[in-house]
Amino acid sequence: MTKPKPSQTLSWQDRSETQTAGWQSESGQPPPKNVVIVDDTTTADAAYWRACAGTAVLYQGDFQNAKQLLQAITRRVDRQAVKPVLTLLEAFHQLRSRQIGRANIVNKVLIELVDGKCPLNRAPDLQQAVEHALGETALPRLVLSLREALGMIGADEWRKKGVYISALKANIHADYGVYSPNRGEYLDLIHQASFQQASADSPNVAWDVGTGTGVIAAILVARGVSHVTAIDISPRALQCAARNFQRLNMQDNTSLAEKNLFPEGKADLIVCNPPWVPAKANTPIDQAIYDPKSRMLKSFLNGVGSRLNENGQAWLVISNLAEHIGLRGANDLLNWIQQSGLKVEEKLDTSPVHAKAMDQSDPLYEARSKEVTSLYQLIAA
């Protein structure tokens, strides 16, 4: 992967000398204006209160101690009182506010990389994980949050391991910043849905809008679709999908398109698994979950009909979690489908099996326990 080197820089004082390094933030946060050096003698309380006041702490010392400091700060953030709420909508907004506030504080713990390596004592080899996440930045010095660096390490391990997809009888590998297909129930719907065509043959041309890892496109190829165009606005996602297609020996049956929604031409089948929750996205990975004001969903519905060949079909895969929370009206989706000149030919439903759906301590458990994921097979009205 290639990615332009960070254009922003961070400066701080160390022993009365000004130090400067490139600044990396996955969420696009600007470099902090105030930075102080901390080490193994710094207490968690001192670092926590500095972070709460907006001052970032650049760690110099032992890497494992830095991790312990980060964990201690995180515990202090999580101990903040939860206000009583009356509705699931209030619970959702409070949860998102706490998540964002938590990230703002814990991301104030910084580390420096020199030539892609972390100079702290007992630091793991970060170079491969960082290069897979950011590409070769060509910067001799780079500062980023410790939390983000740990995320890169974890993502690199999952990238190498992959996620087993039963419909493919193979693993799909997610790069850093690309949403991993851990929730298999919606993929089962893609695998099970029948192709509603005049002939019994599989569609010749299909599009996977918002492809991510390329997992839906791969399932369609495995089901016999002659050619699938994997579409995404993110170059990082498209590179990830291309690697997965190559691993699965599907490169001759797939192509890539860097588009917001639709490429040129028409297709027999157009599939979209949009972000399910109409709320603000704060990081690139959030964009796989949150769709502000349902913009992508509405744009897909409004435009997909004119991109279908005769007897073509659109498959929309979406959960009703937003309806249970109160973020979307109970009839909004069906109304938008109808207003777009489409109708539902068939609808397949499944229940989630992920851990949060069973966790009664989750603030949104009442909504998650009732969630249904559906595949809407849409045709022209």
UniProtKB/TrEMBL annotation:
Q: Is S-adenosyl-L-methionine found in the keyword set?
A: yes
Question: GO terms for biological process?
Answer: methylation
For this protein, the record's SUPFAM superfamilies field holds: S-adenosyl-L-methionine-dependent methyltransferases
Keywords in alphabetical order, please: Methyltransferase, S-adenosyl-L-methionine, Transferase
Instruction: Identify the InterPro entries for this entry.
Output: DNA_methylase_N6_adenine_CS, N5-glutamine_MTase, SAM-dependent_MTases_sf, Small_mtfrase_dom
The GO terms this record gives for MF are: nucleic acid binding; protein-glutamine N-methyltransferase activity
Top-rank taxon: Bacteria
Residue ranges of region Disordered? Answer: 1-33
Q: Where is the composition biased (Polar residues)?
A: 1-28
Recorded hits in Pfam families, A to Z, give:
MTS (PF05175)
Q: Could you tell me which residue ranges the Methyltransferase small domain spans? A: 172-320
Keyword flag Coiled coil: no
Q: Which PANTHER family match?
A: HEMK METHYLTRANSFERASE (PTHR18895), MTRF1L RELEASE FACTOR GLUTAMINE METHYLTRANSFERASE (PTHR18895:SF74)
Q: What is this protein called?
A: N5-glutamine S-adenosyl-L-methionine-dependent methyltransferase
